[in-house]
Request: fold
Amino acid sequence: QSVLTQPPSVSGAPGQRVTISCSGSSSNIGAGYDVHWYQQLPGTAPKLLIYGDSSRPSGVPDRFSGSKSGTSASLAITELQADDEADYYCQSYDSSLSAWVFGGGTKLTVL
Amino acid sequence: QVQLVESGGGVVQPGRSLRLSCAASGFTFTNYGIHWVRQAPGKGLEWVAGISNDGTNQNYADAVRGRFTISRDNSKNTLYLQMNSLRAEDTAVYYCAKDWGAGYGGNPFDYWGQGTLVTVSS
Reply:
């Protein structure tokens, strides 16, 4: 059971928009700790996709965006492409655990 | 460019020990915290341990506290993970990941190695 809760899977057709939710609690997201998102393509290491709730590292397309409200955060992907098919993970810090925590991951399927 | 290269993985029997290494290059190693993150086969990411830039602060996940020790040699730009009393549930790919900052809570991990597989089996 992960500290941060994500849906196991989402899907969408090419060109469509999908969102992935990440639900936490008052000791992590709700405490004001930043939420970060990672993309893991099949057989590769994770890659930082969104940091500080909504900022994109250099090179990440603006089709990817992040937001946070209360104890939850979301990742939105617009104009879906076939190579967006991957696992996506949210991450934050938990003050009760004194630990970095990840969501369980969401598998995105592009139909 | 930033590179993180893990080594030391392999097959080990339950109860035995293993030490992983992560060689870093392409950035000023002494300025950044570093973490170990693992991924069991077919499962999600799990943070294992982290160490601050100067090595004075270490944090561990409950699942490994007391069995694993994270350390760093800033003169060799290398991170280590000493894993003792290994269990079957420690079987995973172990990644080292660079902290965005000095390694104190909340920063993202901006670069990752390719990982090293640890299999705990009799």
Chain A touches chain B at residues 2, 33-34, 36, 38, 40, 44-48, 51-52, 57, 87, 89, 91-93, 95, 97-105 (CB under 8 Å). The mean pLDDT of chain A is 97.
